[in-house]
Amino acid sequence: MKKQILIGLFLLVAGISQSFANGEENVDAQVLHSFRKDFSSAQNVQWSNERNFVKATFTMDQHVVVAYYSDKGELLGVTRNITSNQLPITLLSDVRKNYKQYWIADLFEMAANGETSYYITLENGDQKLVLKSVNARGWQVFKKERKQDQ
């Protein structure tokens, strides 16, 4: 009897913690409806309400994806981390040719408003560069900062 009570209590606690684990209870029904329509195969969804948007972080096809929604359920954009080999060849060639003295610290793809943008963070010992490319039309400096002496 004691064992059955413990098992029942464990299942109750596990069920409660699972239902609150992803923050879905704080997400507007319109956003949830849009998300489920847009990403029906999403798994491990984690929600967070930000100031001007709602963010869903999830896995799909073994990739971590982040979707951003307005509070009215409109999909604002989707990002995913990628490897350098997933860049369009022209962008990868440009990085290899013009930024040899840097290493790649971060790289992600963003789809929004019918365009695909790429953001790459490059670093060396002295500075950090963030480059942006819209629709694979070459890189533009998005942000540049000098590293401070440590």
Task: Walk me through this protein's architecture.
A hairpin with a 4-residue loop joins strand 1 and strand 2. 27% of the residues lie in helices and 41% in strands. The N terminus is likely disordered. It is elongated. The protein is an alpha+beta fold and 150 residues long. The protein folds into two domains: 75 residues, Roll (Nuclear Transport Factor 2, Chain: A), CATH 3.10.450; 63 residues, Nuclear Transport Factor 2, Chain: A, CATH 3.10.450. Strands 1-2-3-4-5-6-7-8 form an eight-stranded antiparallel beta sheet, with helices on one face.
Summary, kept brief:
This protein has helices at 2-21, 29-38, 89-98, and strands at residues 43-49, 54-60, 63-69, 75-81, 103-112, 115-123, 127-134, 140-146.
- Categorize the overall geometry: elongated
Most strands sheet: 8 strands, antiparallel
Task: Give the fraction of residues assigned to helices.
Answer: 25-40%
Average the pLDDT over all residues and give the rounded result: 86
Would you report the number of β strands?
8
Structural class: alpha+beta
CATH architectural arrangement of the largest domain: Roll
Main sheet strand line-up: 1-2-3-4-5-6-7-8
In the CATH scheme, what's the topology name of the largest domain?
A: Nuclear Transport Factor 2, Chain: A
> What is the terminal separation in angstroms?
62 Å
How many structural domains are formed by the residues?
2
H-E string? HHEEEEHEEEE
**Cα gyration radius (Å):** 21 Å
CATH class of the largest domain: Alpha Beta
Low-confidence stretches: 1-21
Number of helices: 3
Estimated share of beta-strand residues: 35-45%
